[in-house]
Amino acid sequence: MIETRKSTNFFRLGLRRLLFLVCLGLGGVLASATLVRFAPGYGAEERELDPRWRADSVEALRQKQGLHRGLPSFYFHYLSALAHGDLGESDSLKRPVGELLRRRLPVTGNSVIRGLGVAWLAAAGLASLGLVTRGWWFEASTTAFNSLLLSLPSAVVAMLAVHLRTPVFCAIAVVVFPRLYGYIRNLLVRSYHQPHVLAARARGLGSSAILLRHVLPLAAPPLLALFGVSFAISFGAAIPIEALCDSPGLGQLAWQAALSRDLPLIVNVTLVVSLVMLAANSLADLAGRAFAGSTQ
Amino acid sequence: MIRRVWFVLALNLAFCWPALVSAQAPGQSGGELHFCLRAEPKTFNPLLVEEDASETIRYLTGGVLIRLNRQTQALEPGLAVSWKVSEEGRKISFRLRSGLHFSDGTPFTSEDVAYTMKALMDPQLHSPTGDSFRSGDGQVVVQTPSSDSVVVTFPAPVAGLERLFDQVAVLSAHSPKKETAVLGPFYVADYSPGSYILLRRNANYWKKDKEGKSLPYLDSVRLDFQRNRDIELLRFRRGEIHLINTLDADYFDRLQKETPAAVHDAGPGLDSEFLWFNQVSSAPLPENKKTWFRTTEFRKAISMAINRADLSRIVFGGHAHPAFGPVSPANHFWFNSSLPIPQYDSAGALRLLAQAGFRLQGGTLRDSSGNRVEFTVITNSGNKSREQMVAMIQQDLSQIGIKANLVTLDFPSLIERITRTYDYEACLLGLVNTDLDPNSQMNVWLSSAENHQWNPKQSKPATAWEAELDRLMQAQSSATTEKKRKSDFDKVQQIVADQQPFIYLVNKDAMSAISPVIRGSSPSVLDPHAFWNADVLRLGPDPALGAQK
User: Can you give the pTM of this predicted structure?
Assistant: First the structure.
């Protein structure tokens, strides 16, 4: 009976999260559409300065740009088209937005997942090593290295990646790693000082066994939540990194869309990015709760 | 449990390893020319081309009836063996090469030319290429008396008619591949959005070299999309790309120090940098400023007070030349060599200003009502040379007591101000000129035109000299002889020099970087500077760059 109630509650929570996610995504779309629409230079294009265009062609061009002028009407048409799976056409690239996103999302997804993998591997490995060795020199050097990486803006990391010819996922890993390392390290240290862990140590259990049998299970729920956050961080970092490295992912697309005030493209990129980030956070949260529940 | 953790760690490592390994430097294969486009092409339809990237694709893939030789500036036969313009520029007859095929094997006939011209002249198409041919209302008639002859008749005379065909890539009327079936040296083989375009050699290309060998020599051309010019330069230095079509002066100097053989300065190009004052009557500016900007003496004084030689020397490192008027000396036929060379003369500028009622008081210039002469120049952000030019102009103008301020705006904001709100005082911009013929500048000089930037869309000419500009531009457009056209356009250039609606500052040199591995290059002042003869380019041995097959 209690199990059934628990699963029903869990289902309701999932449903609430999904509803929240959709509302927030659409809210983000509205906010980005408003910002783009009222940005200076909206609807003005460089080609208007091309003297080869005749007056009637310039007028036709402006009328086409004028289609998105009324924000409520744009939003209404956008939502009704979205309901039919139509994301519209990019004003600047003259291609269907759906096709652009389909081609770019896997590139960013690939970089983000690889970058996350490297960052998690390095951060978890280094934090575990610190816990096992517990030497002051190791602590000091990793803290200094971590602080150095934390102080590097994503743009600098991206430029370094260009100069060193490293792929985008390495730059993402460098941005995400210091944010993960500090948190994972603190989490493991806190778990390591729990009474039952101290008791295990007193009984002479080896460091690796303590880490794997007692510390990690205790730290797992917050680590899962951290995974969601790290996904959001890496996705956020991918945008400027891809734009600077000219990697054909969502970041480059978002940058192009912003520069050319491409309303249909920018609202859809915003929708996709916000949905992916919110979904990752929600899934990690739900997984953490489920894990905590099962442990109890 | 320990095993499981190690398994997860090993899995993670295995997952990331291929990507780590793939982070090596990309290799190069021979026979493939490699360079960057600074934006992604918006279209592969040659009739709809309106920006540089699509223009490059059209140039490399499109077959045209008549080709403008970028070196000699003369017209040469392309798909047409010969042509004849008649009826005062209303009619053009072509005799076509026979036995040619599109890249997909579809035969080329006069029907394809007729199909292309009809599609191009469709009023709903709205393309700059089509607009260049529109000289009057009415239908364009295309006749195909035989499979190798075409006659195109326009409703009104078109000035410089045959030259316009350099921009018209012929489409196939019958190919199922539509616009991807081409007659140029290369065809689009692969396109990765956001990343690159791969062009492969068109085996059906009609042109042969002197030995009778089929052109082009290159197997393929890979065009990467690269917006960042610093990265483009970095890649050139690493040997990852073979050429940079347009090089800025500071990049030119940096590269010259390292590899002098790789950089080429072809001399003054067609592009010009200029400044103008807002003379729009409805502009939201104080009346006294509007009065200054409409005063010819004021504009001429500003022009005299700017040291163009210093701009060329300091901002462009000597890779620019003082500009006299709307036509660069690089445009051999249309340049008016009798125009007065503007001399830097701040004392003369003050004398002119005094004639117009301005006076210098304690180092500050004031108008007849006592208002301090101060204005703001807008230009596009991110363009270092323009920002430096404004900084130098500020210094020059401070010598005659004028305070000039600089505001940089991103391009859309700047365009909004100069075309819609007119909320600006002065603007410094550059004109990228691709066409030699003055007819392409009709929308700049006609007072009713959109691009008559200092005072666009006038219902009737605001000044007598603008009325004269209108008359002369219309006259040159309908003149039947080149001599008459030249004479009319020379007068246009003289009026512009006298009235200074645009204060021309410099003509930038056409600079490019070409790797020593490329054989047969011959940079020109006309665009595309570095690869205008792409069909005869080939990659030679250069162990340093490793670009040999």
Answer: 0.81
